[in-house]
Amino acid sequence: MSDQASSKHANFIIRSQEPLNGGPPLPALAATAMTPNDLFFVRNHGSIPQIDPAVFRLEIGGMVQRPLTLALADLRGLPRASVAATLQCAGNRRDELSAVAPTPGELPWGAEAISSAVWEGVPLREILRAAGIDTGATHVAFTSSDDVERSGRHFGFGGSLPLAKALAPEVLLADTMNGAPLPAEHGFPLRVVAPGYIGARSVKWLQTITLQAEPSDNYFQAHAYKLFPTDITAQNVDWQGGMMLGEQSLTSVICDPATGAKLAAGPVLLRGYAYAGGERLVERVEVSADGGACWQQAELLGQPERWAWRLWQARIDVPPGRHTLAVRAWDSAAQTQPSEICQVWNFKGYMNNAWHRIAVEAVE
Amino acid sequence: MSDQASSKHANFIIRSQEPLNGGPPLPALAATAMTPNDLFFVRNHGSIPQIDPAVFRLEIGGMVQRPLTLALADLRGLPRASVAATLQCAGNRRDELSAVAPTPGELPWGAEAISSAVWEGVPLREILRAAGIDTGATHVAFTSSDDVERSGRHFGFGGSLPLAKALAPEVLLADTMNGAPLPAEHGFPLRVVAPGYIGARSVKWLQTITLQAEPSDNYFQAHAYKLFPTDITAQNVDWQGGMMLGEQSLTSVICDPATGAKLAAGPVLLRGYAYAGGERLVERVEVSADGGACWQQAELLGQPERWAWRLWQARIDVPPGRHTLAVRAWDSAAQTQPSEICQVWNFKGYMNNAWHRIAVEAVE
What we know:
Chain A is mainly β. Chain A has helices spanning 26-29, 72-75, 94-98, 124-131, 163-166, 219-222, 341-344, and strands spanning 13-16, 21-23, 42-43, 57-62, 68-71, 81-88, 114-123, 139-144, 148-150, 153-155, 158-162, 172-177, 180-181, 191-193, 206-212, 226-227, 243-244, 251-256, 262-264, 266-275, 282-288, 296-297, 299-300, 310-318, 321-331, 356-363.
């Protein structure tokens, strides 16, 4: 697996080699509305399968009227669609949570476990219609052909979507990413893209689709990717409890300058991203030069896209000295972000959407 | 108009007589999942029209293929649906905002400008289908037959929904409320019920439906019910700016005990409501006896309903002394509420969803 990262840019930051996990430098993330494929973040829990497209078969079963086995050629006759969508790992910005209290055994993501691309493929609902949905089916489960190991057991990564979401037009079985075939790291030959949901539901190297009456019982749906209250720890957790993650929450990040930067005092250009989960849009982004006492509006770049982040920039006056710069966003449901990291701390380190703060020093 | 409140309960709290505005005492609000009609909050901007159902006509026009004029009898042949839905004024909990800085000319609502009912009527989309939607129509505007006066000009209250929402199955033209005909105060004979959106979009005494390419230009859509940043005031406001309110945000409130209550030290029963706007569900409610440093989970009562609030209760230990009790909720997008009132302050006093706090004194 030594050349797993071979399709990635020289600046790609690798957080772990096996499984391969990494993301782009933050300034690169804020530079383009759609992230180049060679910089798009990678979140894996197991191997990167090498799949021969000629022998690849997708299995659709469970509570369906006609179980299907489809080759890639069978998909070619189906309608296609594309969507500009942001994917984000539920563990994005975990490093800020881990600084408050440990998040044992979890990857210490900075704010780079998020990227955006234009995905194209067959809407999942075309496949579900072809298979025919049985009465009583309420969830659509996916498994990957990767190889994950947990406690000596080997299995494929999996997760599920509620049926209503699975039938929405934006959910694709994608085979291209920014106009190019899916790279191996991103799920070649076929992956789910579930816009608005945590990245873990956009299953890569898609192998099976199973309609069922309950959410997936795969480890990554039934056990991992659950949100626990702040007073729960690895020691006292009841894994049956906790909230199964689904829709993303509202977040925003300063990508440039970097925390710890030494700047010339005066007007400073801030750049970053803001992302509203679910079907919500980013309506406003605000930045602060004094840690959140006073705010000014940032400029939203580009046009709103239902399923994609919004890049932003702001010029803010920074006098000589040490300062905490902060950002927060507002979404189309008139919601904003929690202010303090400790308000959203959880021992799995998920869904940190507190105000993003960076420490800078301005010199004359 | 002296008997405007005649159908209301003796305990109904009247905030203004003309126009009639008021709501129930908070403990009554937390007592039943669906609010009795005689306690349901009332938010008016003008008169309460007295409409003869025999002469009532609903006009559907604008960008439609077949303008329609419908009598109530014409609606009787159409499919019907019901929805358990919470309505909330965007100004709910304004009193907490006004305590930070003035919200000039706005009604000083406590936390009672919210209620829930089972609504029944004709799905709006049935009417829209009957009229036929022209290409280019993207908003559905409503006007009321009430009489609002602003700056000497008289007009009917109005507002609009995006077409996609107007076509959703939960949006009704309701003629009953908790199984009874709509009371005059609540829009007899016909009103819009737009679950998940601010109450102002659920137009009462519905008179016209107009399909158009832009949101309503009615005062209450184009001018009022907009969310401005904290640094904007009545003096420096540009009314073209600000965010047009739509989906409700996540909120939660302690209804019982009341703020200022003197309690026996020891376990105290807290009761209240939590409401997630849009299509989101309330997933968790937490209460704190120390102003938000430590939290414990409340018990969610009843079953989740997509469009209705969730009542909750919690027993919390309160030692002798003065305390600030607090509540916050988490929704199905893994979002929680902002902690401080000042974080959400705006001069119109809308969408206060900061942690709800009450001051109590416990005695031995």
